[in-house]
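The data are quoted verbatim here:
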Amino acid sequence: MKVLVVGACGKMGQMLCARLNELKIENCGIDKHNRTLADDFDADVVVDFSSSECLKENLILAKQKRIPIVIATTNHSAQNLQLIDEFKRDIPIFMSANFSIMFNVMLKLMSNLGALKNCDFVLTEIHHKHKKDSPSGSCLKIKTALNKQGIQPTITAHRVGEVVGEHMLQIFGESESLTISHSAQSRRVFCDGAILACKFIENKSPALYGMSDLLNLD
């Protein structure tokens, strides 16, 4: 498998390239200044760790090369989601707001909370102070899962220090409470999840896929 990493100068892009090298997986990292390097690299899959503003050109790149794309960016506009819906007819697309295996297992656990009536739900997320979007894409993913069950959580987002990512859902009943939480100690978990996504989608048919497909969580 040969991986083309878009956004290779960012923190996640650099870490993904380093991790691919550790695993002896051939890769090529590009950014907005050296995109022409992609022309001569015979990639099997594109991983987009750039930004949501670059989505269209990265989808076009994958389509031109006739290879799948793994979208690891967040904070997508309605226009971007429409683009993904269009391009999934021509190429396989894997998209996730969070590539951590344990986070997605936690998300599945949170899909069965509808039986908890008359409770208060408090969702707290903490990320490093450099993170641009707030709430995070992962937090919004949890919110969506809860909303589908008629649950409207109170959300608090913190941007402090160099915290990789923490999410905690607290549920308060009349005489008891329940806490479900996940903490990522290293960005490596996101790299390893993205690599699993690459292997999963490499030979798939055009469609939109996610972590629930990879982990058989449905």
User: Anything to note?
Assistant: The chain has a mean pLDDT of 94. The chain has two domains: 3-99+188-215, 101-184. Residues 9 and 72 are 15 Å apart (CA to CA).
